[in-house]
Amino acid sequence: MGRSTADSHGEWAVSIVIVHYRSPGLLAKCLRKIEEARLDLSCEILIVDNAPLDTSAAELAAKHGAVYLHNARNIGYGRAVNQGMSAARGRHYLILNPDVEIKPGSIEALCEYMDTHPSAGICGPKLFSTDGSLQYSARTCYTPKIILLRRTPLGKLFPNARALREHLMMDWDHNDARDVDWMLGGALMVRPDAVTDVGGMDERFFLYFEDVDWCSRMHRRGWRVVYVPQAEMVHAHQRVSARGFLSPGQRMHIGSALRFYEKWSMVLYFLKRKSTGIRALATVLTDLVMLSAAFLAAYATRYVLGSAIPEWSAMKPVLGLGVYVRVVAFANLVAIGTFYFLGLYRGEIWRDRWSELLQLIKGVSITSLVAMALTFLITTRALSRFTILLTFPYSLLLLVLAREVLRQIVAGVRGQQLQMKRLAVFASREQIEKLKERFQRHGTFGYEPVYLPYDGGEQHPREGHADPVEQRIAFLENERIAEVAVFEGPEGGGFMDRLIPKLLGTGIPVIYVPRRESFFLEARRVGDFMGFGAVSLGGRPRPVASWAKRMVDMAVAAILLLLGLPWHLIRLMILRGSAVTHCPVVGRKGSVFGLRVYLEERGLVGRMRVLSYYPSLINILLGDMSIVGLAPLTPRDWELAQEDYRLNPPDAPVGLIHEGPGVTLRRTELAEVELAQLLHYNHQYVRNWSLSEDFRILLNALRGARVREGGEL
């Protein structure tokens, strides 16, 4: 093989990560060249296979003693590289494409440079084309002009453009080692400490620009990107992205370029920081347009009906549009103000269509009443109350449609992983790991996190700011951070006392997460207390109780019991009364009651799991449960719950229907993250409870809506 084994600590000098995609011929040649090079250092090879057509890659991996990682589908180049690095154990990682052939001594030269230059985060070799010509792999940063010359027919008109020569660094002696902006990702050696500090490749770049972005992030965090000509390799570069104007490869390249500029553009960074206000303004303007359009639709309807019924038109002639201008303008202002106080311009309302619909119905109803009252106060002109009244059903319809269009536009942009806020997270390493797990389980929350642990030194020596607080503040704008989250550490004081005032001085929004963050789910206000900044927690959570909720629960439970009674009696007769059991469940204020359920999973109950809970309707009649309420806790969940939750439990009944995690009332084990989400949901349910909120949850359950996940950080 020509490769030495790992050292006594199980560590390799270099881990070679090769991402393979349906090119076994190139992979075989690449592996053969590595073997022929007879490396003078220990190395391991990891092959990440993205959607193989056959077993060729697996057989090649076994033949050459490589670790084989298989993906059932093409997960993208950057994600596959990260997958390989996660499994690697080397002191350095060499990211290698299958179409690269190493020359003897090249890997040793890269490792030697990394070992003797601790500030180098990435280094790359001199690349040659298959015909022996120099390949210009070291590049300057992309500009819009370069994109046009490289990816449009303009490049053929101006093949010797100065900007293009400067971008490819064609006039520089490629025999000298030097720092560069970025290098082709076909062959890059990266330091594991740099990966820990900066992160792996950005997985939003499915293909192309992941190398540009990675090198850019290295520079921004103080790591050097170095071209090392002593290492030579041959790259059979196919340039798929340059095959024909708007070819699939070129479209993908342009899409990645747009994603890169969306991420790093200073103008877009400013707009991203103001995205909440911009979206609210766009919603206000859209609502005004829809309200005006609704009046015009109502006026047109009145005009058509007046033409079709001459007697009506004779009794109530259609007035000119100018008569209604002031009334419509006033009604629009009332509507916008009402919508504002109902929270229809807050970001969280976008997450739930039913909550938005209920609030829109409230807002339109209030505006309708005000506008109709205004027609009785105006005595100078007899306005058509039919026109004004008809405006509001049209308003509701158009407002719902327009907001859904806006929601789909935002979802489409986020679906392309654009307009994600870069979130700087200051936290302990333990908190960072928990946050990573939450992101992994529940999605992005619209954020691209950049983790900055405050319980440790820098990963490498840097020039400039020696103070760790100043270091972290200095890079915020350079990293295009749009929001900051600070998690309070166990030690407090010192570092955080200096960090937070500096953060506030940047003008970037700061979210502060205290250690006892669950207490603050019930916070009422933040203000002054004898000169101290204080949070009013408002005492114990309010109880979820009203005569209307109780009457609805009893009526629904009684009806369902009567409807299912014949089936229930037949079941008990057949099974001789052994089918029902009492499962312990933690209910209101931490009390435990026995939930009545069927045990058997066979037959109709096995196919329709909801029938298992038919006996629990008795619990609803007894007041232990509600149709809609808290997500249930088992006694084991209660023991593992946070101490503050047990000391201050939500005063609400367990719900037969709920939106919390978990799909069955009879689970025996719950993961830590799931339990945290369940407790969070229960707090939020009590905090936001209303009959309309119960109605929304019920509607979601009836239409089979997916359980809401996550929430605010």
CATH architecture of the largest domain: Alpha-Beta Complex
Number of DSSP helical runs: 26
Instruction: Report Rg.
Output: 32 Å
Please state the overall shape, judged from the principal axes of the Cα atoms.
Answer: globular
Proportion in β-strands: 15-25%
Structural class: alpha/beta
Give the beta-strand count.
22
Terminus-to-terminus distance: 51 Å
CATH class type of the largest domain:
Alpha Beta
CATH topology value of the largest domain: Spore Coat Polysaccharide Biosynthesis Protein SpsA, Chain A
Helix share bin:
40-55%
Residue-averaged pLDDT, rounded? 80
Low-confidence stretches: 457-465, 604-608, 663-668, 705-713
Largest sheet: 10 strands, mixed
What is the count of structural domains? Answer: 4
CATH superfamily descriptor of the largest domain: Spore Coat Polysaccharide Biosynthesis Protein SpsA, Chain A
